[in-house]
Amino acid sequence: MDLLSEKQIDQINDSLVKHGVGYDNLRYDLLDHICCMVEEGMERGQHFSVSLENSFEAFGIENLKLIQESTLYLLNQKLNKMKKVTSVTGLLSSLMVIVGIVFKLNHLLGAGLFLTLGVSLGALVTIPLMAYMAIVAKEDRHPVLASLLGYFAAITMSMGGMFKIMHWPYATILFWLGLGVILLGFMPLYTIRSYRLAENKIFALTKSAMIIAGAALLWSLSANNPVFNVKVADGNPTENSRH
Amino acid sequence: MYSKELLKGTLKTVIVSLLNDGGRMYGYEITQKVKEVSAEKVLLTEGALYPMLHKLEAEGILETDTVQIGKRVRKYYKLTKSGVSTADEMVKEFLDFMETMKIIVEGNSSPQHGLT
User: How far is it, in rounded angstroms, from Cα A40 to Cα A44?
Assistant: First the structure.
């Protein structure tokens, strides 16, 4: 049973696209399904156009987009739940960090608790979830290694920042590790990819240069800021004496 | 034809049962097969079938082979190795569920109901 010409198959395919079936993997299924229905009608003696009309009517042409929506919903169910959790924890974490900083600046009780909970939630739940979605669920278009390094740096830097503020050990190591990963790992990969893909190469390089300048600024601030620059028991007692 | 409510929740079992003999089937073939073996009492809608086929494929229960037919692609669905054991479990659970339902329904509709 192979009655349809290439032109007729194209016509059915165009109808599917026109009615919102853009997901290729599903469109192949639906195209074959409708072709089978049309061919069955033609075998019973119907003309192509009549059989096509009957098939679309039986199928419910308005249902085509709904089928795609249902398919994508089922496929992305887990991811959608994950996105919700990421959004809620991200928002909660940011809120707690802001409250923590305001409390800290005003020397109010509970600043440490808010900062610790906020940064820990962000670094240990939100960012790993974002990394999972970007790398495993392929939501990110960046190379896997660049994404891994970027998220790792985000975790270590935020934890390092929190450790510094809380006067906990190993803060400097964490913070500088994150900064090092960004400058030596993430940035070269990001720059190479941006340079390759960009139409305006100079603009791509300028963007990277600005990010590096921003990181360097953060570095110098962290080295001179009295909030960061406190005497801590992280095996680097001479750190403060430099300034 | 059975109501949609009654068929809801059985689609997964229907699909894996059909594919459980090691064969492969394409979407239209599945709808026709179900129609035929159920004497048209069960009609699978495309709106339910294809989202479920894609979900089962994403879960690793099904896999696909594609065959070019003229200018269109036909996707054959079949159970994966791990899908075979999942299918066996699903069918077993479903049969057990039907037995239980039978006991409940027949028990409640018997004349002795409520007398003991």
Answer: 7
